[in-house]
Amino acid sequence: MPLYRKLPHRGFNNYEFRVEYAVLNVGDLDALDAAVTEVTAEVLATAGLIRGGTKAVKILGNGEVTRAFTVTAARFSESAKAKIEKAGGRAIQTSAPQDANTVATAAKDAKLAAFKAAKLAKVASKA
Predict the structure, then answer these.
(1) Residue 89: inside a domain, yes or no?
(2) How many angstroms separate the CA atoms of 37 and 50, rounded?
């Protein structure tokens, strides 16, 4: 058996810290109702273009836009942004939301810091 299979594998794993995006093409925006001019993740979810619990949306440039939209999303490709603005709309980029694991990790770190501070205070009071 090769040596690399015998040794333990260690290192960084990005699984806990990744942000998953719902991907949507600009051509899919024409499927929205004609009365819709402002596009957000909630509007896309109610239209059935993305899943309901998704907060981070990335707009890609496949397809054509025929109407002016004000699209608010976490990420845009360069071609998607150009096509939206060429049609007379606006592409507003927001920061990607923190996923649940990142929030849970921050809460766990704060709890651990409070525990260490209390323990240090207890040791200092004995001395």
Answers:
(1) yes
(2) 17
